[in-house]
Structure formats: structure tokens, C-alpha cells
């Protein structure tokens, strides 16, 4: 929460689905003012309506540089208490078969957009001072066969988080990487399909459980911080 009387303000990418939508709902329930980012206004409106509270949908394609600039302008210089990067895409293939377009999409959405958006919003984050939360993946810690492109983007995201944490500590900006295991979301349905398995959500992490750890990191009393959190199925 913010250190003064104003309502804390967050921007959540991937706010239209899965883990990001669960973070939006949890923040709204906790009294935050939330900008929820995605490409589809209808999906964002549905998340905002379900969440209640102060949730403002913002349409932006994170793979588009002009949209990244517009998004940062929309946030403006006012203090930003939390920037949660939850948007992500996945395309599984062995290195021998990787399509360049799939590689580029994962690099742009999973790593380049968090990089550039964080850079653009640092003045607002320092003004709070706020938290940056990167929703990483177990694939950001271990790279398995078939996961090269996605894992490379997530290993890179971990590097971004670690360097940013070291750089921004003097400004009071905290940085957390959250590493979910397999979580019950549309992305995980896509993974099961790629693995030619029937979707079975039992045994998967609920997105709300990941969101709870994001909020716990944000609520951690300063000057403590939570650098890394793993949330895995039992
Ligand atoms: N599910 C898992 O098992 C799992 C495990 C570990 C880590 N993760 C990570 O958790 C994060 C959330 O994943 P999820 O499982 O919740 O996936 P999801 O349900 O498929 O949601 C993905 C989100 O990313 C947004 N997005 C994708 N491409 C975008 C673009 N070009 N511009 C703007 N937004 C874009 C989507 O918005 P649109 O409405 O625009 O499509 C959607 O809100 C990702 O970073 C993922 O890598 C997931």
C-alpha cells in the first residue's frame, strides 16, 4: 500500500486472463486503483465487472512500440505503487522446428515489453516508491526439451529483474520475480494441447494462489522485500 493517504495505484499487464486477471481482482478487492491492460476491451470489461472496485481497462498491444509509448503516457508521472507484468505468450517447439515468428512473439511480449514498459515507468515507480513484479515461470529457472524459446525469454526476464533490483534499491523501488508452476489458465490449456494431453486442471496451481503471493510481496513491510517466490503444484 502507499505510504500516504491516497489510494495505491497499480498497472497490471495480462489483466484480461488467467494470472493477470486474478491479480486485478485481488488488488481491486484490496482497495487498489488498477489499470488492467490487454488487447481486447470486451475481455477487460468482463474482468473489471467481475472484480468490482476501481478497475480501468486499457487496450494495448505490448508487441507494438507505439502502444507501449501510449500506455506509458496514459500512466503519466503520478506515483505508481505497483507494476505487475503478467502478460505472456508461449509457443512450444524443439529448436530444430522453431518458427522465427514464434520466437519473436515470445521475445517481444515476455521480455522486450516488460523491459521497455518498466524503463518508461521508472519515474512514476520511484515517485511512490513502488514495486515491480515480474510473473516469470518455472521455465525461467529450468529449460526443458521443447521449451527453448519460451524459457529463453523467461531466463532473460529473470536477468532483467535481478539487474533492476540491484539498480533501483537506492530509489526504494522493490523488484519481485514470481515463478509459477503449471497454473490453471488458458495458456496451460494451450500447453496441454501442444503435449497432446487432455486438459485436467486438478493438480494445477489456481491463478488466485499466484495472485495471493503477488499481493503478499506488495504488502511486505518496507524496508524488507521479497526477491523471488516459487509457487508450484504439490
Ligand atoms: N499458466 C501457467 O501454467 C503459467 C506458468 C508459469 C508462468 N506463467 C506466466 O504467467 C503469465 C500469465 O499467463 P497465463 O497463464 O495467465 O496466460 P493467459 O491466460 O493466456 O493470459 C495471457 C495474457 O497475456 C496477454 N497478452 C498476450 N499477448 C499480448 C500482447 N501482445 N499485448 C498485450 N497483452 C498480451 C493476454 O491478453 P489478450 O486479451 O490481449 O490476449 C492475456 O491477458 C505469463 O507471463 C506466463 O508466461 C503461466
What do you see in this structure?
The chain contains seven helices and seven strands. With 234 residues, the protein is of the alpha/beta class. A seven-stranded parallel beta sheet has the order 3-2-1-4-5-6-7, with helices on both faces. Helix 4 links the parallel strand 4 and strand 5. Helix 1 packs parallel to helix 2, helix 1 crosses helix 7 and helix 3 packs parallel to helix 4. The two termini are 31 Å apart. The protein binds NADP nicotinamide-adenine-dinucleotide phosphate. NADP nicotinamide-adenine-dinucleotide phosphate binds next to helix 1 and helix 6.
- Average pLDDT over all residues: 97
- Which CATH-level-2 architecture? 3-Layer(aba) Sandwich
- Morphology: globular
Using only C-alpha atoms, the radius of gyration works out to 17 Å
- What would you give as the CATH superfamily? NAD(P)-binding Rossmann-like Domain
Q: Which percent band covers the strand fraction?
A: 15-25%
Supply the number of structural domains. Answer: 1
Number of strands: 7
Q: Which small compounds were modeled alongside the protein?
A: NADP nicotinamide-adenine-dinucleotide phosphate
- Helix share, percent: 40-55%
Number of helices: 7
Query: How can the largest sheet be summarized?
Result: 7 strands, parallel
Low-confidence stretches: none
Alpha carbon gap, first and last residue: 31 Å
What is the fold-level CATH name, i.e. the topology? Rossmann fold
Structural class comes to: alpha/beta
Order of helices and strands: EHEHEHEHEHEHHE
Strand order of the largest sheet: 3-2-1-4-5-6-7
CATH class: Alpha Beta
